[in-house]
Amino acid sequence: MCGIAGYVTDNLLDENILEQMVNSLWHRGPDSMGTYRNDPYAGGMRRLSINGIETGDQPLFNHDRSIVVFYNGEIYNSPQLRRELKAKGYQFRTESDGEVIGHLYEEYGTKVFGRLDGMFAIAIWSVKEKKLILARDIPGEKPLYYSQLPNNGLVFGSELRVFKQFPKLNLSLDYQSLWDFPTFLWIPEPSTVYKEVKAVPRGHYLTLDHTGIALHPFPNRFAGQIAEASSWQDLVDLTRQTVTDSVKSRLLSQVPVGSFLSSGLDSSIVATIAQQELGNLTTFSIGFEDVDDPYHGNADESSAARAYAKQLGTKHHEIHVNGDDFYQALPEFCDYGDQPFAVSSGLGILFVAKAAREQGIKILLSGDGADESFGGYSWYSHLNSPYLSDSTGNDELLGVTSFQNFGLDTEMRLRAMSRYKAPQRAWAWHYYAAEEEKAALFSREPFSDIMGSHRYFSDYNSASQWSPETYVNQDKNFYLPNEMMRKLDKMTMAHSVEGRAPFVAPSVLALAEQLRYKHMVKGEVLKPVLREAFAGLLPEDISKRPKHGFNVPIDHWLKGSWSGLMEETFSMDSALSKMGLVSKNAGSLASQMLADPQRLNGHTLFCYVMLNMWLERNWIR
User: Which of 23, 132, 333, 606 has the fewest CB within 10 Å, making it most exposed?
Assistant: First the structure.
């Protein structure tokens, strides 16, 4: 695990530039640093040593040092790949899991990436070809960004802070990204907050050579290793085996392993398998002030987690937090979000990662990804509602209605949403700011040429394309990488901890492709296949327990102890106001939205709070 950075350019640069770029990623790799230069290429990394601790510093090379590798992540099938390569005559100099990458590239070329079961952001430099290859894992666990330079040059890095260290790089704001941000709480990839910086798409590799830059997808080769289930029991058995194998493979480590444990189904499956394998797992849960949460009831699950940790026999730690703790952490949350980011549950991950690092834990296993793959979100049970059978509705509704309208009962929300066209309905299921709300809060001029955020759901325009599975797949392909994987990576790496998510292994994602709505919702039961697969492993109260997410009561705090943030954000002295990004009456509109008894607007407004904070810390000089 590390952070990587580098560039390809014919311009003469101060040698300190590379070191500054790499060292901006210190939090991703405090254990060591490595750099390499071979004009016109320069690359480097900060390392968090987990495997090959004594010999695994980067760069890593092939046999004649003509292939140079920097990478961030873990290759979980590296023991198998190493055996295969040794049988072909390849020799290894280190114990690093990443050393297989250079040899595999020599053997298979760019087909190497489909052979890797892991999370990774990879930079390969071919000395003989003068060619750079950047690659990113299939689920998008590890971030990787790039910016084109004149004369066929390029800058890349694990975080956007890298690009601020490169001289004279155009880092103008992308107003389209700012517009999309309050809808989703994050900026959808491949866009970033900077117009000239893009994310390498997940499951893709980028090539740069004398012909220019090109992006290429690579296949999930692990899909061919997943059998087709012919019955419900086959699917249950296949799920148990695939998930179990994934968890076991993600225990690859020469340092102690920890795990999130909320006592919910997903984290309990991961922690139970890990404890059975390791026998000395350290678990962490967060104890939260017991504020009533409109999504799931009271928020604190720490007592249930404590009880199950005792039953498992793990070394358990509880981190107790409240609104004041989270308030004090907002600048840190902002900085390590790297670009505007407002997924408030990430604050909990930030505190757990800090506690884990203090206990000497460098790895945290997570249950993220199970809900998207197996059908775990509460609103999935409404996807077959008779109110939604007609998807030819119109956009002319009075007011805004989405699942955030908790002042309306579920039937009324479904009736209202049934009149939306499919793209708007996809937004309404679980996203935040509506287009008309943003139009009222943002100034008109900077956003005169933007496109609406519903364009991310435009594939579902026709009635024939609508189905419950359509929306579940949307979550799997859009929400999961952009929110869940980004949140886990950014907030764990803030404290030099590696977050691992077994439920997004390529094999598990391939299995999820077999699932249909009937496998994800059975009556009122969500994730029935996953529950049944592990019913014999978990206590009944956990295997049958309804989902209870970690939802931060943003509305409650913005109305109370965090109200000063609202005043700062929409004041005349805020960055948003000085830069002309919000309307003159945005403050009064925000107050009305927050007081709306029908609709929860706290997360929408928290986006403006975090955008303002990010601008003040990164843009206003």
Answer: 23
Tens digits of per-residue pLDDT, 504-546? Answer: 999 999 999 999 999 999 988 999 999 999 999 999 888 888 7
**DSSP track, 175-188:** HHHHHHHHHHSSPP
| CATH code at 2-219 | 3.60.20.10
Question: Residue 592 has what DSSP assignment?
Answer: H
Domain 223-375+473-543, CATH among 3.40.50.2300, 3.40.50.150, 3.40.190.10, 3.40.50.620 = 3.40.50.620
- Give the orientation angle of helix 175-184 with respect to helix 602-618, to 10 degrees: 140
Torsions phi, psi of 496, nearest 5?
A: 55, 45
Find, among 136, 141, 86, the residue nearest to 113 by Cα.
136
Q: What residues pair up with 525 in beta bridges, in sequence order? A: 522
CA distance 229 to 526: 20
Using DSSP's 3-state secondary structure scheme, residue 361 falls into: coil
Whether the CB-CB separation of 3 and 72 falls below 8 Å is answered with yes
- Closest by CA to 363, choosing from 275, 492, 220, is 492
238: Cβ–Cβ under 8 A, 6 or more apart, which residues? Answer: 226, 227, 229, 511
* Phi and psi angles of residue 428, each rounded to the nearest 5 degrees, phi first: -65, -25
pLDDT number for residue 358: 96
State the pairing for strand pair 2-8/41-47: antiparallel
In the numeric block, the tokens 């309905």 are attached to 425
Query: What ranges do the domains of the chain cover?
Result: 2-219, 223-375+473-543, 392-465+553-618
